[in-house]
From TrEMBL:
Segments traversing the membrane: 58-79, 105-129, 141-159, 166-185, 197-218, 254-277, 351-375, 387-404, 410-440, 461-483
Boundaries of every DUF112 domain copy: 17-435
Listed name of the protein: Putative tricarboxylic transport membrane protein
InterPro entries membership: DUF112_TM (IPR002823)
Entry keywords, A to Z: Membrane, Transmembrane, Transmembrane helix
Pfam families in the cross-refs: TctA
Length: 499
């Protein structure tokens, strides 16, 4: 208990409070600017950790982490491009809600869900870090493959209007992600004799071009020219009755995000996709997903913000980074003389408690800043379209170029923007492309590693209990729509016979 009081005093120190405030504010701005993202924000802050006190350094990095993950939802909702890859699933329903004139409510749902996901995952982190970390270690290549396959089935759900086009779009995303170096052999694949493509297609340039630039092309096309979005600028917190109605989705998505975050190497982008897929299948409002349904925003934002707590589980308990962001933070902790691992909980419990309390404070600060900044950001859509579109292009170009200072990234944005426009023009949904692109590395690498471990016997995958459960769940979710349709048809036939 004495260590807890010490941790409280460390959080209440002026340096720590200032670091949390500045970190969350800067994180939201960085996350809202397409192309920057959490890793860049934390990397830019690393030099400051050499001059700041240990506690303030840790607080700054954690606050940047929380703020940047949430900030990505702002761009996703307002300009139809994920500010960070973690918010890729948020734009599926966030931007359609904004286009209906409810940008204020969409931002309110995103902020509320992000806050709930961050706080609940922190509670879970504090209560069950060693337990969750040991469970995460039970996941091997076979289990990761089963998890990726389970998440991939959401393509069927988000492309219900045209399954064939949705599957083709998903296959395109899967293929686009395999361009570059083979993760196991090191061979270069599908580079078309281009040195730049040997490193693969970057996730951020691909997503930004696919959504942001294709949106600009779409608006400029003759078919849609002159359309204006009438929005309600501001920030609107959902009512208590709405929160109660969708509370189960928020809790389930938070648990999924925390669990996936605790699996080393997965990350928030995959977590939001898995959560969105599950919400799409189980929500009573599933038919409205993709048209501005709050459950879609809740599922994505609760999960990706819950990863901030979940990813720290293996990082603190075992010294294993939960995602690329915590890998950078792991190095920063070591620089500060804090060595994550099982002994950290016994040797430095005050630091552990300090991290927990800092996450709580960062999430509360995120909610406050989100409410204050959302009205400013939401006024973006009130700018005349003739001025907004060029601003988006400039913003995208600056953000993408600043990541690697590589002109090739701008070419990727341009090409993927054209591809996105062509797909939209021909009625292909963009969501399956993102799902396939994000999940492709996980599925490919884990499948091939699993086959190596099982001597090329895929049937042995079904002898792994966790993987078997996921395979069964995948099969049920694929078969259930057809079964439900068959049962509905039978019932209708019986009613007609009675009549």
């Amino acid at each position: 208990m004495n260590e807890l009081f010490i941790a409280v005093n460390m959080v209440l120190e002026s340096a720590s409070l200032i670091a949390i405030t500045v970190g969350v504010f800067a994180g939201i701005i960085i996350g809202a600017l397409p192309g920057l993202g959490s890793i860049l924000g934390i990397t830019m802050a690393l030099p400051l950790t050499f001059v700041l006190p240990k506690e303030a350094s840790i607080a700054l990095l954690l606050a940047l982490y929380c703020g940047s993950v949430y900030g990505g939802s702002i761009a996703a909702i307002l300009i139809n491009t994920p500010g960070t890859p973690q918010s890729a699933a948020t734009l599926f329903d966030g931007h359609p809600m904004a286009k209906k004139g409810r940008a204020d409510l969409a931002l309110g749902w995103a902020t509320t869900a992000s806050f709930a996901g961050g706080v609940i995952s922190t509670i879970i982190l504090a209560a069950a870090a060693p337990l969750l970390a040991s469970f995460g270690l039970r996941f091997g290549p076979v289990e990761y493959f089963a998890l990726g396959l389970f998440a991939l089935t959401c393509i069927v759900s988000v492309a219900r209007e045209n399954i064939i086009k949705g599957v083709l779009a998903g296959l395109f995303g899967l293929f686009a992600a395999v361009v570059g170096q083979d993760p196991l052999t090191g061979d270069i694949r599908f580079d078309f004799n281009s040195f730049e493509l040997s490193a693969g297609i970057g996730l951020v340039p691909f997503l930004v071009g696919l959504f942001a630039l294709s949106e600009v092309f779409w608006r400029l096309s003759e078919k849609h020219s002159g359309q204006n979005i009438v929005i309600r600028a501001g920030f609107k917190i959902p009512s208590f009755s709405e929160l109660r109605q969708r509370f189960s989705v928020m809790i389930k998505s938070t648990l999924i995000g925390t669990w996936v975050g605790a699996l080393p190497g997965i990350g928030a982008t995959a977590a939001s996709m898995v959560s969105y897929a599950e919400a799409k299948r189980s929500s009573p409002n599933s038919s409205r997903f993709g048209t501005g349904e709050p459950d879609g925003i809740i599922a994505s934002e609760s999960a990706n913000n819950a990863v901030t707590g979940g990813a720290l589980v293996p990082t603190l308990s075992l010294g294993i980074p939960g995602d690329p962001i915590t890998a950078v933070m792991l190095g920063a902790l070591v620089i500060q003389g804090v060595t994550p691992g099982p002994r950290l909980f016994t040797e430095r419990p005050d630091i552990v408690y300090f991290i927990f309390l800092t996450l709580f404070a960062a999430n509360f600060a995120m909610f406050i800043f989100g409410a204050l900044l959302a009205p400013i950001f939401s006024r973006i859509l009130r700018i005349p379209e003739q001025l907004l579109m060029p601003c988006i292009i400039v913003l995208v170009a600056l953000g993408i170029y600043s990541i690697n200072v590589d002109p090739f990234d701008l070419l990727v944005v341009f090409v993927s923007g054209i591809v996105g426009f062509v797909l939209r023009y021909n009625g292909f949904p963009l969501a399956p492309v993102v799902i396939g692109f994000v999940l492709s590395p996980l599925i490919e690498q884990s499948l091939r590693q699993g086959l190596i471990l099982t001597d090329e016997s895929f049937l042995q995958f079904f002898t792994h209990p966790i993987a078997l459960v996921l395979f069964i769940a995948t099969a049920l979710f694929l078969v259930w729509p057809a079964v439900r349709k068959y049962v509905k048809r039978k019932r209708s036939a019986k009613i007609l016979e009675i009549v």
